[in-house]
Amino acid sequence: MTPVPAAKGAARLLIAPGFTPDPDYFAGGAFAFMGKRGSGKSYLGRVLAEELWRTKVKFAVLDPMGVMWGLRSGADGGPGGLPVPVFGGDHGDVPIDRGSGAALAGLIIDEDLSMIIDMKRLGSRAAEREFACDFLDHLYRHNSDLVHVLLEEADLFCPQKPSPGDAPLLGVTENIVRRGRNNGVGITLSTQRPAVLNKDVMSQVEGLGIMRLIGYQDREAIDDWVRGHADPEAARAVKASLAGLATGECWWWVPELDVLERTQIRRARTFDSSPTRRRADRAAEPRSMADVDLGSITARMTAAIERAKADDPRELKRRVKALEAQLAAAPAPDPVMVPVLTGEAQEALRLAAGTIDQAQSQMIDAIASAGCWRPSPACTRCR
Ligand SMILES: Nc1ncnc2c1ncn2[C@@H]1O[C@H](COP(=O)(O)OP(=O)(O)OP(=O)(O)O)[C@@H](O)[C@H]1O
Ligand SMILES: [Mg+2]
Q1: N or C: less crowded end of the chain, CB within 10 Å?
Q2: pTM, 2 dp
Q3: pLDDT tens across 130-161, in order?
Q4: Cα 156 to averaged position of ligand 2 atoms, centre (Å)
Q5: Ligand 1: does its nearest atom lie under 6 Å from the Cβ of 277?
Q6: Is residue 74 one of the residues assigned to a domain?
Q7: In a domain? residue 383
C-alpha cells in the first residue's frame, strides 16, 4: 500500500496520538465513524471540526440531533469556540426551514464559510430529507474548493432499508461518497448502527473510525467493508476488541495510508454539547459563544429567514407575547351608549296607544251619525 505523501512540515489533523492524517487527504475523502451510543462519535466529530478549522479547511456539519452547536464555545463554556455560524435549532444564529438547503450550500461556496447546521427543529422527517437533499445536491453540483461534510446520524441520510421517500437523499449522498472527490467535496458518515447504514454506500468509504460496538450485527457489518478494502485476518482481531473499547477509544483503519491503529481521541477544545445526562443534570449552557459576522449571511438569506420565522414556534411565541403586551397597554375603549326604554316609558306608550285607538273609534262613529254637509241628489245617503 502506498501512503499518501504529505508536504514536509505541513499541518496535520491532530485527531489522536497515532492518527494525524494530512488535512487535504482526509477532507477530500470519504470516511465512516461508527460506535454505539455514548461511545464518543459526536465528540470525535467536534475534534475533527476543530482540526479542519485549525488547518483552514472548510467544513459543514449536518446535525439532525442538535448536539454540535458546542463548537461555538470553549471547553469550559467560555471563550475559545470556533467563529462559525450555527443555522437552525435551539442555538441557531439564523433560523432555517425545509427550503433553505440550496441557499446554505451557496453560502459555503460563494462566501467561503464553514457552518453547523442544526436540523433538530425542521419538524418532520420529510422536511429533514428535503433540506438535506437540496443542500448536498447543490454542494455536489456547484462546489469546486475543498470542503468536508460531516453527517451525524448518517443512517438517516442513507439507510440500508430505504422507505419510498428516502431515495433522492440516498442517491445524492452516494454521489458524494463515490464522486465527491472530483468536486472537492469529502464526507464523513457517522452512525451508531453500521448494520443499518446502506451497504453500497459504506463499501465505498476509504477509511473507518471504529469505536465501541457491542451488537453482533453491527460488528459483522464491518466485514462487508473489509472484504473490499482490507485483510480479513486483521478484521478478526479488531472485531474481537470492539465491545471492550473505552469511551473515546477508536480504531482507525485506512488501508490506503497503511493505517490500522487503536487510539484515544484527544480532548476537545470546544464545549461538550452532547454529554451523557444523569437524573440530576440540567442541560448545561455555555457562558459565551464566539462572535460571527452575520451581515452577508442575513442579506443572502432574507427570504429563507422570513419563511423560517413564519414557522418557528419560538418566533410565534415571541409574536403572541408582543401582541398580548400591546393589548394590555392599549387604553380602554369609550363606552358605547345604547338607548333603552324603561318599563315606565313602555307602560306610558301602551296607555297612549289605547287612548289613540279609542279616539279613532269615536271619530268614526261621529262621522257615521252626522248628515252630509253638502246634500246632493247623487248621494245615496241623502235620497
Ligand atoms: N474522546 C473523549 N474524551 C473524553 N470524553 C469523551 C470522549 N468521547 C466522548 N466523551 C464523553 O462521552 C460523552 C458521549 O459522547 P458522544 O456524545 O460523542 O457519544 P455518541 O457516540 O455521539 O453517542 P450517540 O450515538 O448517542 O449520539 C461526551 O459528551 C463526553 O462527555
Ligand atoms: Mg452523537
Answers
A1: C
A2: 0.80
A3: 999 999 999 999 999 999 999 999 999 999 99
A4: 13
A5: no
A6: yes
A7: no
